[in-house]
């Protein structure tokens, strides 16, 4: 039986998730320190109100998040992985193998990995630097045209490289990319008033999901007739257990990749560049030895930002975690942001330290079978953008970011920016 009383530190309200990350961390730190496995009432603002939902366990220590991630036989993904309750049909239509357990998860993940061949990864990887350079060319053009007026970093920089990368990988045509990225952003923005723009959350999600499924079906139909070397071409011709994937399965893959590939990396770029601007000492260290330090800087940005803040599991048996009994059927939510500030793993966890080594952050998950498939592509993208700024536009000044409200993606909806000083920095 789950506990009947809820923890006194409330992390379930939308008001909590609307706080700046540093203030959320103050509350999470109390839990991590005193009650690392704590019981809470259901998250406010979920898409599906369920009177019988008893609540969830919050897991805030690094070691426990790793334990849960690496024991899928005890902590299942098959009952849903979102913190909020989501209608079942939406879960199936959007999550694909993210919300599955072995053996189906293993099979489908292997299929996507094998369709995404090393040759294709290398092709995209090698073009990311050129794309990053184009983005800065365009930015400088906008600057010249607008007489150095402030621009939105999200629109003109952060969103562009992830959208290009995931689209190239999956096979999305240039004219469809923006619409796909907007729908992907809506898929994770149901708690955020700016993203909702007056719409009702479930309605917005349905609209976004339908738009993505329509795009996926149309692409799949084209690739069946005329395959190229993209992921969709490989998937429409692949067989699982002697059967081809259905349009519904292909569309769910498409949604998963569009969402996983866009918002996560977009926000990493924005949080990362913004963090550098807020920490001149880190910026100076990076400038001193860019190639030697950019790898470490990017890892610290993933830790600092924790672009994916939570994922959920469901206990499949009675078990124990950090001395607390968990019952079969209980919801267990991993707080990656809290684990990434765990002082037992990260000395001075609230310091942005690009020289941190080792940096065992859980930005891409705690290991185990669901570990992020796009980690290496995300790293290449963030590095390429940093490199462009370092060499060409070293002086950026930021205004106040507007953060998205929600318990899943640590999102920024707008980030005013101006280019100050000279263009063309370090050689
Ligand atoms: C900085 C950017 C990114 C972050 C922070 C991130 C984070 C994550 C996290 C936390 C998970 C869940 C891990 C777990 O449950 O153990 C995940 C899974 C996943 N990610 Fe990423 N991700 C990023 C970029 C990408 C990109 C660029 C792609 C696609 C190219 C991608 C594709 C996936 C997929 C397909 C899964 C599901 C894996 C599975 O269930 O087996 N991610 N990611």
Spans of at least 5 consecutive residues whose pLDDT stays below 50 are none
- The side-by-side strand order for the widest beta sheet comes to 1-2-10-7-3
Count of helical regions: 17
Main beta sheet strand tally, sense and closure: 5 strands, mixed
Mean pLDDT: 94
Would you report the number of β strands? 14
Fraction in beta strands: 5-15%
How does the overall form come out from the CA principal axes? globular
> Over all CA atoms, what is the radius of gyration?
21 Å
Structural class: alpha+beta
How far apart are the first and last residues' alpha carbons, in Å?
63 Å
Proportion in helices: 40-55%
Ligand names? protoporphyrin IX containing FE
Entry summary:
This protein has 17 helices and 14 strands. The chain has 427 residues and is an alpha+beta fold.
Summarize the structure in words.
This protein is of the alpha+beta class. It has helices spanning 14-17, 21-34, 62-69, 88-95, 104-115, 118-145, 153-158, 160-170, 177-187, 193-196, 201-225, 231-237, 247-278, 280-288, 290-305, 336-339, 375-392; strands at 37-40, 56-59, 75-76, 151-152, 239-240, 243-244, 310-315, 319-321, 324-326, 331-335, 396-398, 402-403, 412-414, 416-419. Helix 9 (177-187) packs across helix 11 (201-225) and helix 15 crosses helix 17. The longest helix is centred in the middle third of the chain and has 32 residues, at 247-278. The mean pLDDT is 94. The protein binds protoporphyrin IX containing FE. The site of protoporphyrin IX containing FE (HEM) has 28 residues, from helix 13 and helix 17.
């Amino acid at each position: 039986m789950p506990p009947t009383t809820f923890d006194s530190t409330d992390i379930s309200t939308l008001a909590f998730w609307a706080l700046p990350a540093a203030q959320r961390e103050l509350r999470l730190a109390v839990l991590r320190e005193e009650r690392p496995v704590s019981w809470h009432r259901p998250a406010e603002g979920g898409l599906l109100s369920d009177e019988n939902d008893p609540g969830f366990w919050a897991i805030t220590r690094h070691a426990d998040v790793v334990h849960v991630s690496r024991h899928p036989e005890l902590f299942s993904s098959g009952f849903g992985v979102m913190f909020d309750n989501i209608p079942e049909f939406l879960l199936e239509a959007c999550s694909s193998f993210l919300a599955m357990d072995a053996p189906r998860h293993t099979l489908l993940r292997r299929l996507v990995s094998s369709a995404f061949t090393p040759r294709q990864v290398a092709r995209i990887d090698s073009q990311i630097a050129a794309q990053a350079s184009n983005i800065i060319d365009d930015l400088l053009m906008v600057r010249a045209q607008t007489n150095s007026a402030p621009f939105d970093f999200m629109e003109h920089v952060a969103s562009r490289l992830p959208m290009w990368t995931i689209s190239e990988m999956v096979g999305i045509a240039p004219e469809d990319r923006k619409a796909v990225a907007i729908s992907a952003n809506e898929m994770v923005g149901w708690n955020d008033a700016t993203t909702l723009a007056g719409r009702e959350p479930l309605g917005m999600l349905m609209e976004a999901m339908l738009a993505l499924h329509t795009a996926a079906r149309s692409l799949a139909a084209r690739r069946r007739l005329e395959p190229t070397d993209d992921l969709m071409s490989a998937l429409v011709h692949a067989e699982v257990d002697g059967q081809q994937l259905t349009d519904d399965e292909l569309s769910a893959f498409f949604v998963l990749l569009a969402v996983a590939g866009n918002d996560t990396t977009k926000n990493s770029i924005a949080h990362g560049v913004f963090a550098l601007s807020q920490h001149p000492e880190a910026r100076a260290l990076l400038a001193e030895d860019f190639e030697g330090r950019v790898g470490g800087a990017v890892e610290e940005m993933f830790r600092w930002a924790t672009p994916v803040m939570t994922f959920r599991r469901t206990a499949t048996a009675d078990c124990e975690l950090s001395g607390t009994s968990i019952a079969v059927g209980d919801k267990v939510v991993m707080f990656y942001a809290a684990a990434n500030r765990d002082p037992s793993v990260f000395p001075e966890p609230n310091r942005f330290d690009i020289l941190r080594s080792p940096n065992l952050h859980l930005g891409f998950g705690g290991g185990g079978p669901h570990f992020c498939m796009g980690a290496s592509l995300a790293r290449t993208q963030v590095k390429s953008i940093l490199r462009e700024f370092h060499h060409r536009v070293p002086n950026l000044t930021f205004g106040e970011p507007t953060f998205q409200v929600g318990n899943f993606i640590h999102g920024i909806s707008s980030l005013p920016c101006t280019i100050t000083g000279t263009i063309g920095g370090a050689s």
